[in-house]
Amino acid sequence: QVQLEESGGGLVQAGGSLRLSCTASGRTFSSYAMGWFRQTPGKEREFVAAIGRQGGSIYYGDLVKGRFTISRDNALNTVWLQMDSLKPEDTAVYYCAARQRIIAARLYEYDYWGQGTQVTVSS
């Protein structure tokens, strides 16, 4: 089992940048594919980005492609989401997720979730 903790959320102006971090407990972080999802009130949680267990495979959601970058360091048990050129529509709670299998992009394919971190982009 793995526990996840996100950090780095906050308030930023449109066009700005934020870097989210997700730190995992345990000694088997490299066996987990990691994902980022986001959710706004009244909407389903949507896929943002995912990275494979060794970082060789990466997926992005269409709405963030070209603006967000996912990366990981297995020695630090950490995955990051670098968010650039932020837009007000990026405002959401961002969640880190893990699955002990190959990379995936669907919500239901992830087994472990963090508590989320709020990102607010002002216009």
Layout of SSEs?
Layout: E1 4-7, E2 10-13, E3 18-24, E4 33-39, E5 46-51, E6 58-60, E7 68-73, E8 78-83, E9 92-99, E10 112-113, E11 117-122
Parallel strand pairs: 2-11
Antiparallel strand pairs: 1-3, 3-8, 4-5, 4-9, 5-6, 7-8, 9-10, 9-11
Summarize the structure.
The chain is mainly β. 0% of the residues lie in helices and 48% in strands.
Task: Explain what this protein looks like in three dimensions.
With 123 residues, this protein is mostly beta strands. It is built from no helices and eleven strands. The strands form two sheets. Strands 2, 4, 5, 6, 9, 10 and 11 form a seven-stranded mixed sheet that branches. The protein has a four-stranded antiparallel sheet with strand order 1-3-8-7, with no helix packed on it. Strand 7 and strand 8 form a beta hairpin. The model has no long low-confidence stretch (mean pLDDT 96).
Helix- and strand-based class?
mainly beta
Average pLDDT figure:
96
**SSE ordering:** EEEEEEEEEEE
Task: Give the strand tally.
Answer: 11
Taking pLDDT < 50 over at least 5 consecutive residues as the criterion, the unreliable ranges are none
Can you count the helices?
0
Brief descriptors of the model:
mainly beta; 0% helix; 7-stranded mixed β-sheet; 4-stranded antiparallel β-sheet
